[in-house]
Amino acid sequence: MSEKKPYLRIATEEAFCPAELFDVYRKILADGTLDDPGFMSQWGYFLNSNSERSVFVRDALCSLGEDRISNMDKAGIDQAILALTSPGVQCMERSQAVEFAEMANDYLVNGIKAYPDRYFGLTAIAPQDPDHAAKEIERGHKLGLKGVIVNSHTLNEYMDDEKFDPIFAAAERLNTPIYMHPGTPSKDMVRPMMSRGLDGSIYGFSVETAVHLLRIVVSGVLDRFPKLKFVAGHCGEAIPFWLYRLDHMHAAMIKAKRYATVQPLERKLSDYIRDNFWITTSGMPWPPAIEFCQRVLGMDRVLYAMDYPYQYVLEEVGFTEQVDISPEDMKKLFQTNAENVFNLV
């Protein structure tokens, strides 16, 4: 896949972490007081397993140097948008999360400076402190970071609560997108998944993130912040496949006045998805799914991503390039859509 194409291949959901983050996670695991069985399962595995995949993921996450560049070159990736790995700081107590988010952003900015033609980055925030998170979005923007990474729920809490509005206000004001990345399902969601191994990237991540995004839409966040931009991976966490039913059943609920917490919105649910969302192909290099998303959302709304290092398969770039679209739209998929939504140029 090292063959050059008439477009850049920009991978838009690529994870990193400072090695110090693993130390924090190990302390959380050893302490045993975090009420998040999904986190305990995921990071208990990745930090303690010596499987080939776990060792690769640990090493790759901590590299912003030649090892990562070499792997990008082998896969044909020209540029990568890097974000602090899930759950980032969102499993920590407030003061530690604030401090570590700042450190991770400085670490990322320094890594980008070493390879300015290969890397871009997203600002990590601590939603535990929405006011500080808003200030960190502004600081990251000034440092040249191109968006905001949120690893879904924070200590089992979702961002449809109005106390998180400072985060949305800052992102809207700066025209910087929020990438809603999966985290392990919250404690009330994860247990029936874990007994059959469905809690992780196989299924649970997508369900959890889709629920979070839909809570945000249904709650009216996008009526308060109509220019807010969200990016969602894994072909939109399957939301595009549900647009008809979401519209139909939401309208039925509003008409019936069934839920006090579900009030009329200014637009249909599908309108918010089409107007305020961009989606990436991370982990889903499957032409039928990509083509469907392009059809229902538009060619300008679907971006390429790999999901490195959690899913690093050299052939996946080639799989994606089998999508049956014009050369102009292929360039949108791999390059210009990313440049536009993340303001890369």
Q: How many DSSP E strands?
A: 9
Question: What's the Cα radius of gyration?
Answer: 19 Å
Question: What is the CATH top level name?
Answer: Alpha Beta
Q: Can you tell me the overall shape?
A: globular
Cα(first) to Cα(last) distance is: 25 Å
Low-confidence stretches: none
CATH architecture designation: Alpha-Beta Barrel
Percent of residues in helices: 40-55%
In CATH, the homologous superfamily goes by the name: Metal-dependent hydrolases
Structural class: alpha/beta
Spatially, the strands of the biggest sheet line up as 4-5-6-7-8-9
Main β sheet profile: 6 strands, parallel
3D architecture notes:
The chain is of the alpha/beta class and 345 residues long. The protein has one domain (10-341): Metal-dependent hydrolases (TIM Barrel). It is built from 16 helices and 9 strands. α2 crosses α3 (52-61) and α5 packs parallel to α6 (130-142). It is globular and about 60 Å long. The chain starts with 9 loop residues before the first strand and ends with a helix.
